[in-house]
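ok so i was messing around last nite and threw this chain in just to see what happens. nothing serious, just curious
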Amino acid sequence: MPSGIDGDSGKILGAAVEADVTVTFFRLKPAHLLLPGRMLCGEVALFDIGIPASACGGIRLFENSPLLWGAAYPWPNLDAHKYARGHCLVLSGPAHATGAARLAARGALRIGAGLVSVGCEKDAVAVNAAHLTAIMVKPFDGAKGLGALLTDRRLNVVIAGPGLGVSPQTRALVEAVLASGAHVVLDADALTVFKGDPKSLFARIKQPAVLTPHEGEFERLFPDVPDRAASKVEAARAAAARAQAVVLLKGTDTVVAAPDGRAAINANAPPTLATAGAGDVLAGFIGGLLAQGMPPFEAACAAAWLHGDAAGRTGPGLIAEDLPEILPESLMSLRERLVTPHDT
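result:
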C-alpha cells in the first residue's frame, strides 16, 4: 500500500503518498478497492509470487466480479417461458412521483424478469399507464388492497421505496409487503420511514431481502452499527447480520454484505452514476434477478457489477434512462466471458 493508508479500511492515517503505481502480491487488500485509499493507489499491479491459495483460509471478502456470481446467473433455458422467469412488482408513489418506480420496473424487465408490473394507488394509474407498454399496471387501494394483491403468489418479488414518499402510508405498504412472504428489495423511502424504529423493520423480515441504502439512509437505519466510521466493509457486515438481510451499501465503492459474513467490494462504478434515478434502476436490476431465482447475495453483486458496466459503456452524459437500454450490451459481453469451450 502507499504509505499512510490503512490496508483494511482504505482510510488515510495522517499524511499519505499519492502513488502512480502500486504493486501488490498474491491478493488485493481491501484498501486497493475502498475509498479514499483507492484514489491514492494509482494503477494497481497484482502479481503471483507462488503463495498457495490455501494460505488465505476461508475467504469471506471478495472483489465483485463475474468470477464470484457468474455460475449462479439465471440465463434462460431453451424451453423457458415468461411465467418461469418470475413476476416482479414495483410499488409506485402518488401521481406526481411515479418516475422512480418506472425506472426500477424498466431495469427489472431488461435484466430478464419474465413479467413486471407497477403497483399503484388509483390516482397514479393514468400517469403510469400512459408511460408503460410491456410493463403492466396493477391498481390497489391502500395497504389492505396491496396485501390482497400479493395473495397472488406469482408476484414473487416486490421492490418498494423508489418515489414512495416518507409517510405512515409508506410504512404500512412496506409492512404489507413483508407480511406477504414475497422476496423484497427495500430502497430509499422504504428504509427512511423506519428511522427511529429500525428494529420493527428487522423483526418483520422473514423472507429473502436486499436492503439498498446510500450512506445517509444507512445512518438512519443503523445509527449505532459498530465500525461504521472505521470500516465500510465491517459496517455493512454488521448491518446485514442485524437485519438478517443482504445489505448493499451504495457508493463509488459499493459494498454488498450477507448475514453469513460474506462481503464483496464493487469497484467498476464510474462517477457518471452520480445522477438522479441511477439507484432506482439498480433496485430494478436486483429485483429482476431475484424474480428469476438468483440468491440474494449473488443477485445484489451481479446487479451492482452490471450497473457499473452499463454505465461505463454509456460514458459521459449518462442519465438513468440509459442504463436499461445499454444493459443488453453488458449481458452479451458477460455471456461471452462466461462461456467455456464445452458450452459451444
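not much to say yet. The first strand starts at residue 21 and ends at 25.
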